[in-house]
């Protein structure tokens, strides 16, 4: 019955611009939305009430939209809508006076449920600190004042030149009250490129050693070829004994030496790759890091 009464008052004679069919469709949609609201299908109810409002934004429709917003946890929007409705009482017809009075009572009720968040930074915080709550910039205030927020989780973030960005989740409960949150700014970690430089040195030196090892092994193979050429059938002429012995000595020396130098080079290359991979991240990468930290306070930030 209440839905029928509200629907009837919804589209009073003031909505004369619409056709009878449009008015009846709006009344039917209002009753559907009211049923959704009673059964706590708030998103559906909100969408339908808003469609009705596009036909005629009466006091009844505005009241119901505010009620649905409150049911969805959007307390601040609901309170502000109730408040705006109550403020129009003097201009409303007698049939809507009771609706305006009820809206004023809802304002008081929601004021007691909406929690408040006071965000501060430490005394030594940088002058250019920028704080946001849920992505919305929060201006610096020297007179701390808590701000109204809907119940639930909120993200407090802060950035400043030369400091690590911070991000912290704060959960506010339905039921009013004030929650204090302090942001502590930590100096930016200086990025030393020691590991990076050493990595490139090791990588370059290792590559050079691998190349040198390869050259020595090639020289060994060349010495072996010379010995085999001078001593066909493994029979060496006496006249070339000194030359053959020299080639054999080179082969015996360059083999293990080339292998050893190559292995050392490979190890150096591996060390270089490791150092480069573990080098500190770039400034852009570090900008994505968050460091939550509470502390003392000097400034407060409000919307």
Question: Would you write up a description of this structure?
Answer:
This protein is α+β, with helices and mostly antiparallel strands. The protein has helices at about 1-10, 20-40, 40-55, 60-70, 75-85, 95-110, 195-230, 240-275, 285; strands spanning about 115-120, 130-135, 135-140, 140, 145-150, 150-160, 165-170, 180-185, 300. It folds into three domains: about 1-110, Serine Threonine Protein Phosphatase 5, Tetratricopeptide repeat; about 115-190 and about 290-300, Carboxypeptidase-like, regulatory domain (Immunoglobulin-like), CATH 2.60.40.1120; about 195-280. Helix content is about 55%, strand content about 15%. The strands form two sheets. Strands 1, 4, 5, 8 and 9 form a five-stranded mixed β-sheet that branches. The chain has a four-stranded antiparallel β-sheet with strand order 3-2-6-7, with no helix packed on it. A hairpin with a 6-residue loop joins β6 (about 150-160) and β7. The longest helix is centred in the C-terminal third of the chain and has 37 residues, at about 195-230. The model is unreliable at about 1-15 and about 280-303 (pLDDT under 50).
